[in-house]
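Morning!

This is the sequence you dropped in the shared folder:
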Amino acid sequence: MKPSTSIPAVLLTALLLPLLAGASGLYVGDRGVRPLGRGGAFVAGADDLGALWYNPAGLVDAGTGVLLDASWVSFSADYTRRVRLADGAGATWESAMPAVRGTSAFLPIPTLAGARAFGERKQFVVAAGVLAPQVALMSYPLSLEDGSPSPSRYSLVTLDGSLLAIPGVSAAYRPFDFLQVGAGVSVMVGSFAARTVFATSPPDRLLSAPEDPSYDALAELKATGLLAPSANLGIILRPRPWLRVGLSGQLGYSLDAPATVRVRLPSADVFARARQEGDTARMRMKLPAILRAGVEARPLEALRVELGYARELWSSHQSIDILPEDVRILDVTGIPSPFQVPAVSIPRRFKDSQSFRLGGEYALTVGAFALDARAGLSYEQSAIPAAYVSPLTVDTDKVSGSLGLGLRVGGRWRLDAVYSQDFGGRREVTPSEAAMPRINPLAGEDFPADTVNGGSYSTRTRILGAGLQYQH
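The structure's back. Tokens below.
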């Protein structure tokens, strides 16, 4: 999500078979239809192919089988930008701009996984899968209904065209009845695209008023050939038949990919003869490691309840760096030609976040149907300090509730469904604390840019999902 990108992007075009995606920061909600139905409390109780992400040690309980599920993340963000203005006498005041809404595209986020059990006691399992990170591809209007430029344009226009997948393989082993261990490797592959607007008055305020739309340059960044390896490890202990304790850890992803940067130059007169030469660049950023823990109790044969904890090490995500490789702008009036486009670093300054989950499921029979009723509740801190919240990545401290249902058919098949919704979702960023700059590659370091992320934010997240599992 999240010059112009976030830590973006999702979607799998699948063909292998998983491992990633979580919550606070750039991820939206917990992934997997059954685990989400339990509010993400699925570390100690992981016992199907959803364990590939939450705790690979649980694959021993999954045995031989296949899992296919998909979730639709409906995410929207309303943003009312506020700026601080000053008159010639030095008096200052705040002014609110028209509100804009960002929405996510309809893109089901899938998981496809398979596993095979070996050994006399089926104590060894090998699994493979492919999934997509649970993120929302946001888009904001480039202009308002009256034709005026959108207040969010310097943060983000759209992430449409992004495509990420995470194939991986895992193995799990049960050496004793009370102990299960598992590990896996994965790689993030794919590409992502982002469009945003740069200011190009050289430097700002010398030739034009701030945010003069005739000096706006629409820039498109597309990073391709992403290839970032990672690994995870998990353990499940069963000190009592009715008690399970789970721990797992996922390493982060370090992205360093070739990219192209293309710019639609502004309409201002100084750009009348200007043109771009070269478009190659590199894009670099880091995604966090994640630690998880859970305790599941089974006080009744049909009832399972888990209390879980997760810590996401988002402090590794400090910036998104765009490094042009011989990208030049020629024949801009008043600027030496060619002008070598400098490196652009979008500050992020994320912090580690934590979340708490409580969820469970109850097996019951209704007529001829064998059902698993699920429910979960979670509280999650935002990884984004107020100063760095922007339309590029909007996140808040939040409480989420989930309801899920599983229908078991013939002893081997299970159909799953889930609905989840966040509650809360408001954030205020005063113009004085806002720290996201208006990117101006032509201004130089001696002319610091004004910030563009002050204002009021509100979000709404709903997730719908359905899945199918076969277990031999």
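Headline: The first strand starts at residue 65 and ends at 86.

More detail when I'm at my desk.
O.
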